[in-house]
Amino acid sequence: MPGLADFNAAPAADLRPLLTECLAVPRWVDAVIAGRPYASEEALLAGARVDLTDDEVRAAIAGHPRIGEKSARGGVAARWSAAEQSGVDPSLADRLKAANAAYEDRFGHLYLVCATGLSGERVLADLTARLTNPERDELRVVNGELAKIAALRLRKVLHPDDTRGS
């Protein structure tokens, strides 16, 4: 579905699965669809900014693979995730696995970061630093990371052949 005009004109039933791949929060998907037509890509991205509830954050996290692992789901979100994590060096796998386990023990959900453009060392440093966050603060951090991922993926919906920002 290249371009904003096609996005604005597409039937909601066609957009719903693509938007769910961007952010698996039904309220967000409904809001993005209801906000059409968008005058510009910037207006779409602004309209897609939403503060998720803690339950929505937890539900959205469930659709993401652990950093350093491949998605078991397959499909477009798995391809996007693999591209987004492409800077994570596989040689860090053991350290990431241990850090992910510590994070999950601490917070009860997997660690999530918008990994596009981040090295594996940077991801590991961020993960380690976030282990000190209070749980409530960490959910707000994850909310921000989900927003970054959703915006990145919305751009991919509009520009599927553009490999920049993968």
Automatic annotation (TrEMBL):
PANTHER family: 2-OXO-4-HYDROXY-4-CARBOXY-5-UREIDOIMIDAZOLINE DECARBOXYLASE-RELATED. The keyword NADP does not apply. It catalyses: 5-hydroxy-2-oxo-4-ureido-2,5-dihydro-1H-imidazole-5-carboxylate + H(+) = (S)-allantoin + CO2. It comes from the Bacteria. This is 2-oxo-4-hydroxy-4-carboxy-5-ureidoimidazoline decarboxylase. One of its GO terms (molecular function) is 2-oxo-4-hydroxy-4-carboxy-5-ureidoimidazoline decarboxylase activity. InterPro entries: OHCU_decarboxylase (IPR018020), OHCU_decarboxylase-2 (IPR017595), OHCU_decarboxylase_sf (IPR036778). GO terms for biological process: purine nucleobase metabolic process; urate catabolic process. Pathway: Purine metabolism; urate degradation; (S)-allantoin from urate: step 3/3. It holds the Pfam family OHCU_decarbox. Its EC number is 4.1.1.97. Residues 8-155 form the Oxo-4-hydroxy-4-carboxy-5-ureidoimidazoline decarboxylase domain. Keywords: Decarboxylase, Lyase, Purine metabolism. NCBIfam families: PRK13798.1, UraD_2. It is an enzyme of class 4 (lyase).
